[in-house]
Amino acid sequence: MAAIPNSGKPKALIYTPAGRDALVAVSLVNEAGATSITAPDLPMFAALLDDDVAFGVLTEEAVRSGDLKPVAAWISAQPSWSDLPFIVLTTRGGGPERNPAAARLSEVLANVTFLERPFHATSFISIARTALRGRLRQYQARAQLEALGEGERRLQTALAAGRLGAWELELSSMRLSASDTCKAIFGRGPDQEFAYDDLIASIHPDDRGLVQASLDLTIEIGRDYSVEHRTIWPDGSLHWAEMHAQLYADRYGSAKKLVGVSSDTTARKTSEENLRRLNESLEERVRERTGEVHAAHQSLLEQVAQREKAEEQLRHAQKMEAIGQLTGGVAHDFNNLLMVVLGNLELLGKHVTGDPKATRLIDGALQGARRGAALTQRLLAFARRQDLQVKPVDLAELVSGMHDLLRRSVGSSVSIETVLAPALQPALADANQVELALLNLAVNARDAMPDGGALSISLREEQVAGDSGDLDDGTYLVLSLTDNGTGMDAETLKKAIDPFFSTKELGKGTGLGLSMIHGLAVQLNGALRLTSKLGVGTTAELWLPATERRPEQAAETDLSLAQTASRLRILLVDDDTLIAMSSVEMLEDLGHDVVEANSGSQALELVRSGGHFDLMITDYSMPGMTGAQLAQAVRAIRPALPIVLATGYADLPAGAEVNLPRLGKPYNQDQLSREIHKAITSETDLHLRSAS
C-alpha cells in the first residue's frame, strides 16, 4: 500500500506507472508546493481518493483500459463544495479532440486538464499550481459551510433552550414562514397551516392596532420590531405572545423581510396579573388598617435599614480585620527589626563620645529609626493592636496643653478657636494616642486649607441611648475639629477611613492617618465620625466613653533605683539571633550577667537543670513554644522568678491569658532597665505581702 506523507502540505495523488513518469511527476508536484502520494495501481488510486487530496495526476494510457467505476463513483459522491481537479498526461496528438479515450476520461473525471507529452516542466508546474489554488478555494468554501452549519446548530440550540419560535415575513408577498415552536405559541400544531392572515386573526382585536402600528413604524424608519400582545387560540383560550424582529433591506435600501423570534409570555403575564391583584388586595388591606399597618410598615423599614447598616458595618469590620491582621504582622516584624537597629545604635553611641561627626550620624540614624517606630504605631493603631494605656483623661486639660503645639503645627495662616464646655467628665482613653489623633486631625485640616482658614476645636458631652449602631448606650466625650477647607464629596467621604486611601499627592501622606484614628476609637469603644461638604469644609468628631473615675496624679519614677539596680543573672529568650545579640549587649552594658536561649524548650531545660536566675526576659512570638507558654511552665518550677514578656505585638491572641509585665518592641536601654527594676520590685513586694 502506498505511504501517505504527513508534512502538512497539500497532497497530490499520482498514478503514472510507466517508465520515469512517476519520478518526474513527484518532482514537479514538489516544485508546485505539494507533497505526493503514489498509487501502484488504479484500484489503489480509487481507494486513496478523499477530501484531503488537492489534485490527481494520471497518464492516459495507464487508465485507458482500466475500470474507472470506483473513481467515477467517488467523484459523483463528492460533497457540494468539492470538485477535485485532475491532470491527465497524454501522448502527442492524444488530446480529447482526437482521442475518444481521452474524451471518456473528461466525462468521468469532470474537472480535468490534459497535458500532452513531451511538455516543459514549467507548463506542468503552472497547471498544478492552478489546480492547487482552485482546491484551496474549495477548502475555504468548506470551512465557511461548516461555520455556517455550526452557527445554525447553535442558533437552533439557543432557540430551543429559550423556547423561542423563529419566523420570517416576506414584505412583498406577506408570506409568513414559522417554525414549529412559533406555531405552538399561537396554538397551532406542527402540520397545521399558519399564514400571515392566520397570525393577524389570532391577535386579540384590542391589540391589532398596536401590532399594525409597530409593523408600520419598523418598515418606515427601520427600527427593530418589538411588541407584546394577546392571542386567541383556536380553542378560544387567551394567551400572551412577545415578538421581536429585525428588518432586512436590499442593496437599494428597500425593506425586504422581517426575521425574528417569538415567545410565549402567558406564564409571566399571569404571574404579573396575580401579583398586581395581590398588590391591589394588600393596598386595600393597608387602606383599611392605616394607625396599626402603617406603624408596622415603618417598623419593618427601620428593621431593614438597621439590618443593612449592620451588614455594611460587618463587611467593613471584616475588611478592616483582614487588612489589620496583615498590617499587624508587618508592624510586628518591623518592630523586631527596629529593636536591633535602635539597640545597636544606642550602644554604639556610647563608644563614639568625643567624635562629633560620628555622634551626629548616630543621632540621625536614631531619629530615622524612631520615625520608623512611630510608623509601626500607626500600623498597630490601624490594626487595633497598639498597646493602649487606658486611664481616665481630662480632655479639656489635654486640649489646652496642646494649644501651642497645635498652633505651630497648623502655621500662622490658620486661626484656631477652642470651645471647651465646663465641668466635663473624664474620658476613658489613652492620653498619648488621643494627643496623636488630635495632632493628626489638625494637620489634615491645615492641608485642606492651603490658602489659610479657621480651625474650630470643641469638646462636649453627649448621651447615647439606643439610637446609634456603632456606639453602646452611655455618656461620651466628643472632641470635634471643624475646618472651612476644600471639603470632600460623598464618594471621597465614604472612602476616607479606608486604609491607604489619601487625597494628597504621592509621597505627601501614607493614607493611614484617619484609619489609625478610626482604629483607636473602635479599640477604645468609641467612634470616629466624619461629615463634609465639597467647598464648605469638614468636621471630624472623636467620640470617647466617659467615666466617673478621676484622672490619676502622675507618680514620680525613682530613676535612681532603675539605674543603680544590683548585678543580676538574667535568662534572655529570643529565637531571633540579631535581637538576642542586641539585647544581650544592652543588658551586659547595664552590668548584668546574661544567659542566652534561642527557644522556649532550651530555656525551660536551663531552668529545670537548676541554674540560678534572678529574672527571665522572653519574647512572645516563638515557634514551638510561645513566651506565654514558657512563662507558665517556668512558674510551675520557679514560682517566684520575675518574668518580663517582650513582644512586637500589643494584644496577645485570644486564650493567652498571661498576667506578666510586658516590654514593647522596639525598646531602648533605659526602657529595658526600668522594666527590669519594676519586675524585680513588684515580685519583691508580692513576696513581702505574702509573708506578712
UniProtKB/TrEMBL annotation:
<dbReference type="Pfam" id="PF00512">
    <property type="entry name" value="HisKA"/>
</dbReference>
<dbReference type="InterPro" id="IPR036890">
    <property type="entry name" value="HATPase_C_sf"/>
</dbReference>
<dbReference type="InterPro" id="IPR003594">
    <property type="entry name" value="HATPase_dom"/>
</dbReference>
<dbReference type="InterPro" id="IPR001789">
    <property type="entry name" value="Sig_transdc_resp-reg_receiver"/>
</dbReference>
<dbReference type="InterPro" id="IPR035965">
    <property type="entry name" value="PAS-like_dom_sf"/>
</dbReference>
<keyword id="KW-0597">Phosphoprotein</keyword>
<dbReference type="InterPro" id="IPR036097">
    <property type="entry name" value="HisK_dim/P_sf"/>
</dbReference>
<keyword id="KW-0175">Coiled coil</keyword>
<feature type="coiled-coil region">
    <location>
        <begin position="268"/>
        <end position="320"/>
    </location>
</feature>
<feature type="domain" description="Histidine kinase">
    <location>
        <begin position="329"/>
        <end position="548"/>
    </location>
</feature>
<feature type="domain" description="Response regulatory">
    <location>
        <begin position="569"/>
        <end position="680"/>
    </location>
</feature>
<dbReference type="Pfam" id="PF02518">
    <property type="entry name" value="HATPase_c"/>
</dbReference>
<dbReference type="InterPro" id="IPR000700">
    <property type="entry name" value="PAS-assoc_C"/>
</dbReference>
<dbReference type="InterPro" id="IPR011006">
    <property type="entry name" value="CheY-like_superfamily"/>
</dbReference>
<dbReference type="InterPro" id="IPR000014">
    <property type="entry name" value="PAS"/>
</dbReference>
<feature type="modified residue" description="4-aspartylphosphate">
    <location>
        <position position="619"/>
    </location>
</feature>
<dbReference type="InterPro" id="IPR004358">
    <property type="entry name" value="Sig_transdc_His_kin-like_C"/>
</dbReference>
<dbReference type="Pfam" id="PF00072">
    <property type="entry name" value="Response_reg"/>
</dbReference>
<dbReference type="InterPro" id="IPR003661">
    <property type="entry name" value="HisK_dim/P_dom"/>
</dbReference>
<protein>
    <recommendedName>
        <fullName>histidine kinase</fullName>
        <ecNumber>2.7.13.3</ecNumber>
    </recommendedName>
</protein>
<dbReference type="InterPro" id="IPR013655">
    <property type="entry name" value="PAS_fold_3"/>
</dbReference>
<dbReference type="InterPro" id="IPR005467">
    <property type="entry name" value="His_kinase_dom"/>
</dbReference>
<dbReference type="Pfam" id="PF08447">
    <property type="entry name" value="PAS_3"/>
</dbReference>
<feature type="domain" description="PAC">
    <location>
        <begin position="225"/>
        <end position="277"/>
    </location>
</feature>
